[in-house]
């Protein structure tokens, strides 16, 4: 659906007509229908917003994501508003039904994948036993016939093992290759790709405010020229609403705000998509699953768990910290996953342009020690599909071609120079917490 609605801009301009388009579950608006080719001025995802009908104004409807976005809208008349309400309600209902169905499919596929992984471990154990049997037979000088029989058993086990591994990948390809936003918990703003932050050191960018609402500005960052003479064309950066690790402000006791930390974790997930949405799907599934476990703990008592430390200490006191699927265990694995991503980005920031080598080095420093033979094999398989440096950097930018600009590399290093130290500081705090309460685990999966 599309048409004209009046949008509240600010106390100076008041209500202004805008051209609105509802498509694919997203409501976008433009200055006018004629100016739609210039791109939308803003948008809101219907599936995560609240639709509120005004109590006294029969033409008004408010769309809100508490603490994130506020769209105050007016239709031309009550009948027109009713049409928009029906369209918005239908879109929201369809998206909610689809999300529920998707979550059910995700849960079923997760269980199927876990079952297959258990089978892989079993076949791995059998394979090792058979190899040891061959070694024993060789030492004892058994007959050739015995050796042939044992060899056939090993061959059969290897075939079954590889077939099961292929089935694991098929489940991952079929289930987890969709966009990461389908994994977001209800009420969580959709995850967007990481885009360059505005760094004061660049010095040449300016903020142009087009409109404002009750919450703040709808700002567009425009680089007025990155070269010394401003010779390169302007780059239009999308406004990034996600919280990132460098935005987090610790409390006086180095407490890490729970919600901001989880938002920052959601914001880094798209890096895994850039590495290969299919082959890294199991990694992403595990990463997002741990975020959700901690989020569920938070929503159970938002006032009681303002920081990550408060969650861990609560479970320590209740002897739940080392229970399977506890928030403390989820944070343990989430922390390990973040260390892997931090090491990978650090390798890239240090100048490593071989993405496969950067991933392998990061894996060796962080996750490898906690993974058994099967999981290491899956990761080795994923490494083969790692993108080139050029394709990886091209996937990170918000506008095609920006990775070719002369200032792209310096901008990326500046951004990572702010982002990575903040991320490392929070990981060190969590390391000290887990060490203090002896919560580390050497369990291999």
TrEMBL record:
Residues annotated as domain PH: 1-93
Which terms does the record give in the GO molecular function aspect? ceramide 1-phosphate binding; ceramide 1-phosphate transfer activity
SUPFAM superfamilies per UniProt = Glycolipid transfer protein, GLTP, PH domain-like
Q: Which CDD domains does the entry link to?
A: PH_FAPP1_FAPP2
Q: Which UniProt keywords apply?
A: Golgi apparatus, Membrane, Transport
Give the top-rank taxon of the lineage listed in the UniProt record for this protein.
Eukaryota
Give the matching InterPro entries. Answer: GLTP_sf, Glycolipid_transfer_prot_dom, PH-like_dom_sf, PH_domain
Instruction: Enumerate the PANTHER family for this protein.
Output: GLYCOLIPID TRANSFER PROTEIN-RELATED (PTHR10219), PLECKSTRIN HOMOLOGY DOMAIN-CONTAINING FAMILY A MEMBER 8 (PTHR10219:SF25)
This chain belongs to the protein called: Pleckstrin homology domain-containing family A member 8
Q: What's the source species for this entry?
A: Nothobranchius furzeri
